[in-house]
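Sequence in, structure out. Go.
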Amino acid sequence: MVAVSVFAPPVGGFSFYNCSRNGVNLEADFAKKGHKLPKAQKTGMTIAGVVYKDDIVLGADTRATEGIVVADKNCSKIHFISPNIYCYGAGTAADTDMTTQLISSNLELHSLFTGRLPRVVTAKRMLKQMLFRYQGYIGAALVLGGVDVTGSHLYSIYPHRATDKLPYVTMGSGSLATMAMFEDKFRSDIEREEARNCKSKLDFLRPYLVPNKKGTRFGWYKCEKGTTVVLTKKVTSLEFEQPSFCSAQDCFGGFAASAQQLTCVSQTARKDIRVLRGVEAFDLNKAPVVETVVSQRRERQRIK
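Output:
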């Protein structure tokens, strides 16, 4: 028995079944239980780029925030992709760092395989494919710029993989103000210095609102002598007692009659005891030796 089968070609295109399922079923059930979905957070970053003649100027702010807290005042948002391609990132700092590092390593392997510098459009395609794979859950808004054999290229890449190729691009929370400056100052034949000034024009607006501004010190605050009144004054004199040395007669008592009687001690004692003939006081450092001689003298008298 032969089974009859009809060949059905596969249906092309992207299936949005999961999107409708998440939006209609899961989110509705989540809302019925009294929960709210998390909202996108404002990261407070501003990145921009402009093309002039055959080169590109990229610029960004240097502040990294955690909500309302400034985490880093001098944060670098420049990400190396290849020697001829650089990328600026806005959004979640961890996502931009890891995304650009992964694309940079892949482009390095591509450059080693082909034996030439990678093109800017290659980096753009890799970034688009990676971000589209995660459906916007990677919070990386990128400005990609570089120069290759085909000329200068400047792209803006959104977290959902949407891209634009424009002569000037801005992204981040301050993109609206930056875009207004670009539309006012940009020309097709703009020079390098003009492009830099156009990029950094917004720097004048940064101190627009500065909370907790530190005051300026105008002078020294030193009190002159006599400003504080002395209520009471008391002077106490201290008296120090001088150390007293005992004489040889007092220390030895009646046992040290003459210096010749002390010469009968051992040879070791002779080296330590100095000549006492005609000397009234003895050295305090040699007191243990003298006491030993006196004790030996007492023992001899007891034996006698």
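Check: The first helix runs from residue 17 to 32. The helical segments are 17-32, 93-114, 120-133, 175-185, 192-199, 248-252, 267-272, 287-303.
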